[in-house]
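JOB MANIFEST
job_type = single_chain_structure
chain_count = 1
residues = 229
[input]
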Amino acid sequence: SHPTPDRPWHIYFATHYSLQTESKMVCIRQATVDDLLAMQSANLWCLPENYQMKYYFYHVLSWPQLLYVAEDFNKEIVGYVLAKMEEDAEIPHGHITSLAVLRTHRKLGIASKLMTSAQKAMTEVFDAEYVSLHVRKSNRAALHLYQITLGYDVNDIEAKYYADNEDAYDMRKILQPEKHAKRKEKSEKGEKGGATQQKEGWVAPGRRMEGDDKKAESASGAHGHSHGG
């Protein structure tokens, strides 16, 4: 529609702006199995790193609390975050597998809200101490989001991480600072204690000094051997 004598410019612009604003309104909610096709579609539109459907199922069946979507007023999926917990990790921590927002809905804070939702669930449901992710070194927009907006730090650089051989930043964000600090302090104390014991030649009760086993074997004529597991 256009301005008419009965619908002057100021009313037209006000109505037009209202419709534009409404079209950008989204709600962030937990994803379901029914959302997976739309999530995969958004991934194909936005990112060069794509996944088979079974990988999405693996996430939603294993960690349903960590998948979130952004849904617009037409019930269309315009963004998602695919996240998981790292299995068998010594320190419980989460990982962001994939994050995408359609170009039509960018710069509205949707990516931040998706990330924050997943991070909160990692802590509340799985007691995650930190969260990690990988991002291309050339992806300046994503780096700004992770570092400046969300507070991630570069932990390492993984050479030729992507299929086209581009390097990736391995980034991390501490989700439970107090817990992390206590664990780190305990670990450092343990290392210092071990170093002191080694320096003073301390031997734990019931533990023989290095060389005692060899002397015993020599005296008895025994030979140690191992079996492949």
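[summary]
The first strand starts at residue 26 and ends at 30.
The chain has seven helices and seven strands.
exit_status = 0
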